[in-house]
Design goal:
The protein has about 130 residues and is an alpha+beta fold. The chain is about 30% helix and about 30% strand. The radius of gyration is 26 Å and the shape is elongated.
């Protein structure tokens, strides 16, 4: 609520609501939410706006020696590709691969054929990330 001149105005996330203006659907839903406990409003909003996360297929990396590896989480900075790994199975949190060790045309083609997004930086200072 805010005092404006000689009367109080109820403020909503959609702007001020004058007391004598007709109620719209949006204002009615805001008023209904105002009468609910905060935890219920948060639960209602979360339920309305959440969808199950879409798991991206891992990218396939092709190396010059012919072997391939899957990488679900990686970052390309400069001339290196950093792969996020599982510490409990690999003994490290990350693994760094030089882009010079990879067969980049084969990697790009294989991922394009599979429908998996794999991009390389197009200019200096650009960082490519995959969550």
């Amino acid at each position: 609520m805010e005092l404006r001149g000689d009367h109080w105005v109820r403020l909503t996330s959609y702007g001020p609501q004058e007391p004598n203006t007709p109620s719209t659907d949006r204002a009615a839903s805001v008023n209904a939410a105002a009468n609910k406990p905060f935890s219920q409003v948060v639960t209602d909003v979360a339920a309305a706006h959440t969808s199950p996360p879409v798991e991206l297929p891992p990218a396939i990396l092709v190396f010059r020696d012919g072997h391939t590896e899957q990488a679900a989480n990686y970052t390309i900075v400069g001339r290196t590709l950093t792969i996020k790994t599982d510490y409990w199975t690999t003994g490290a949190w990350t693994r760094i691969v030089a882009l010079a060790d990879m067969d980049l045309p084969a990697t790009l083609k294989l991922n394009r054929d599979r429908g998996t997004k794999f991009s390389l930086p197009t200019r200096t200072g650009e960082v490519m990330m995959r969550p």
